[in-house]
Amino acid sequence: MSLLAHQLELLAPARDADIGIAAVDHGADAVYIGGPGFGARASAGNSIADIERLARHAHRFHSKVFITLNTILRDDELEGARKMAWDVYHAGADVLIVQDMGLLQLEGMPPIQLHASTQTDIRTPEKARFMQDAGFSQIVLARELTLQQIRAIHAVLDPARSQLEFFVHGALCVAYSGQCYISHAHTGRSANRGDCSQACRLPYQVVDSKGRFVAHDKHVLSMKDNNQSANIAALVDAGIRSFKIEGRYKDMAYVKNITAHYRRLIDELIEARENDPLQAPLARASSGRTTFSFTPDPDQNFNREFTDYFVNGRQDDIGAFDTPKNPGRTIGWVTQVGPNWVELETADAATILHNGDGLCYYDLHKELVGMPINRAEPASPTRLNRWRVFPKDDVAGLRDLRKGTELNRNRDMDWVRMLEKKSSERRIGVWVRFGETAQGFTLQLTDEDGHQGVATARHAHEPARDAERGLASLREHLGRFGATDFAAIDIAIDLAQPWFVPASLVNQLRREACERLVGARLAAYQRPQRAVPVEPPTPYPEDTLTYLANVFNDQARQFYARHGVKVIAAAYEAHEEEGEVSLMITKHCVRFSLSLCPKQAKGVTGVQGQVRAEPLALINGKEKLTLRFDCKPCEMHVVGKIKRAVLNEAQAQPMTFYRTRPDAQAAH
């Protein structure tokens, strides 16, 4: 089944099948994972056997498996992508997340549902509506949108045909997704082909048009991490139905913790709306309820501190300009530095340090310095907040560490060890009915989705010696679902009189009924169907496409031509743009973040009219990029050109692609 308008979907990332299974067990309604190739995380691929194993587990709970086939493809890669699409479809995958429009033009694709990747850069109602009409059942919106913009997009869509998906947590690309080419221009590694070198996390000198330093060694393109915990209800009301967690490179502990965190928030919202007669009811997109053996806490995982980005309008504090590393939580300060140890005092006496914890601090240049510790021990028998730690690294090499230095903890080994163990249970609710037959007894299980599993056994009807005790024992054994996927909602015992029923017989009936219920659930599971595109083809909102459209194969060119586009330029990776162009387009503005925005200066006496959005330069070593500011849409362009070494390497390994930009006549 496709996602319905009243259903909320929690979509979790998975680096591998084991992490995907853990995500399902921690409450994910769907999991997205890379297949054997063509995913936008170059080193996060998985075998077909692992995809099949994950799908089998997910479908028990009617959770779905999405495959990321979201890179742009060369002509010679299309057949391999088509074959992989069939392989993952046969393995049980439910959805392909797609960037390259050539896949929609390609004949012989499996009947698998398609979702439009965030790499397709969907920011307007017109483009979202086009994607719906082209056959996408779910549309991943740009992270930079406000609630008002999301509402406007939702208003033009048909909820019976497509739903909106939005990133709610994790690392933020500073560029509009699909609109960053710095990595390819400087290294030949294309972000649109899953191999970004992350130039945005580097430190830069910011220089004005006269060569004066505006900022020194600042990570001015590095964003804090996305966290929409406070905005879930507002996003639902704006039209979001799928809540996506970033992190296909992240480890098991991250996926467990963050999935559990948003599972709780979404469940709380669903339950609140159930009890509010003025609100339309909401529902989970898969079956079962999840309980956790820990309290989810996003601060415990790697993060660059948090921002809700542009959801509530432009904010002052979206950047992680001092460091792209994890600063952690403040726990105390240094009281003494020894030859191979550091003594510290914690702000909270309840804070316990562990061997293997990670501590860090800011040096005098505001650079984060890591201090992993080998051993931690109490420094005082009477003062519980005094600790002596023995760092892994030479204390003498820890720059600017001194008495009074504030310390943070960015790795808590107690938390890490806890999440290495089993930390959740996901159970599907069942109604249990135990009754009798002419020759014995029957057990019927009916789950929350209406599926049934029934088992019967022959056994003599012998009156129980102690009727009350016998019924209590029978009820207790009927409710023991152990390691199955099920938990009893209600137990009904329908007997002519209290019979003696051995525990072994109850266990046999429950085991057989559970097996049949699992079989019934899997048999009833329906994968979502691929949407049928509108015919005749809906015209694309523009009739001219630049390299920013990422058209990298002839099938993609034919797709856009079929939808009315007259002029279609090749993707940046085709190397037809050898001069200076926009290598990144972003909603983040360095001038605004450094309080140099002309709009900020309006009305400020003595400043108004003096501040102009003149270009700035970013310098990192020998690399230089120009910042240009488009103030009407409030966007920044990072301008540069492709390196000759990248062009030379590409000539040594030529790509199969049309070499000239199609003109208007050829595009028909």
Automatic annotation (TrEMBL):
Q: Which GO terms describe its molecular function?
A: peptidase activity
Q: Which residues form the Peptidase U32 collagenase domain?
A: 407-521
Query: Which keywords label this protein?
Result: Hydrolase, Protease
Question: What superkingdom does the record give?
Answer: Bacteria
Q: Name one GO biological process term.
A: proteolysis
Task: Please indicate if the UniProt record lists Protease as a keyword.
Answer: yes
Name of the molecule in the record: Protease
